[in-house]
Amino acid sequence: MFKRARIAAKSAARRSTFARRVLAALLTASLLPAAASSVEARDPLLAYGARIVGDDARTRIVIDFDREPRFSVHYIANPERIVVDLPATAFGFPAKDLAARGLFKDIRYGKMDEESARIVLTTSGPVKLALAKVQADETGNGYRLVLDAEMIDKKAFAELVKTQSWSDRSEAAQTTSAIPAPQKAAPGDFIIAVDAGHGGIDTGAIGVDTKTEEKQVTLAFAKALTDRLNKEPGIKAFLTREDDEFLSLSQRVLIARQNHAGLFISLHADTLKQKDIRGATVYTISDKASDKLAADLAERENLSDQIAGKETVAEPPEVADILLDLTRRETQAFSISLAESVLNSFKDQVSTINNPHRHAGFRVLQAPDVPSILLEIGFLSNAEDEKLLLDEAWRGRIAGLLTDAVKRYRAAVMANGG
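Request: output the structure for the sequence above.
Response:
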């Protein structure tokens, strides 16, 4: 994802030591008093390059320094901010190189006093640094500070603010983790992320008769499935969204990975122009769609972020290929196994469309290490399907069949040493 950032880093590092020292001297003269007594104040660090990449689930900041910087990280609430404290530092890169994007809606940096500087990252919601470290530039011409931010929930952020210490800057955390432990999960539990498609401003499809919104149907099904799964010993299921809120596609994937999910099940109830088509369909990921129906559905679902006005960050083609290759190699076989288990549960119990296992390039299924399926429970464009989709008893029945499928899948994985 960050190949372009690394290339930029190498280019920046080729600047001559003389040029950087001249810039440091000029900036020092303008930013610091001539009589400063601190060694760091007389010869501040030079931050000579910066770049930022990412989206509203993960964002990386890289800052190039002429010497190794010590730093500390703290969190502030109302509004949520990440504070990075540094020794005296001259910031010599163009402001546009660190313009806010992704998880950050405002970025400010500058001198605090003769001996210190600070970077303040105002976030769009609760965020933690999954990685905060200094590493030597591979060319040997300086160091870089790498900050990898990931979204977390409000409770986790509040705990960060509550438990952090501001007393000792020397205890700068060089590496941190933003991956929370799954709530109520015991060692050895099989963890499942249940994703209710759409939400918030993204209503999804609309029922042909009742005008019910897809986001309501998927949330009701997700809650029923989660409750049923959690009745099984050794299984812990959780919702990616618990109410009517918008989550970007990348946020949904990240939530599953943060909670160490062993499965990801995304629930949908789409509409089709052909109102006579009805029944369930199970989709897995592929770089090439199995058919036009799958291709069209993936295209619509992948537009979810744009519907909500979110910026979709296009990955470099080579990165997208790597991610897809990882998915295929590490998890596609497991995803297909889960899809087959679901269809075996549905056989003679639930109506399915012709060729009910299909595949396409769904962005929400792209977690490289989490077997994932997208389940179209039925079509809101079909009157018969719509009645079933709104039937609480039928939801319970489907939840039971899906739970049976998950149990068979888990047993097969365990039997093979997984």
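The first helix runs from residue 3 to 13.
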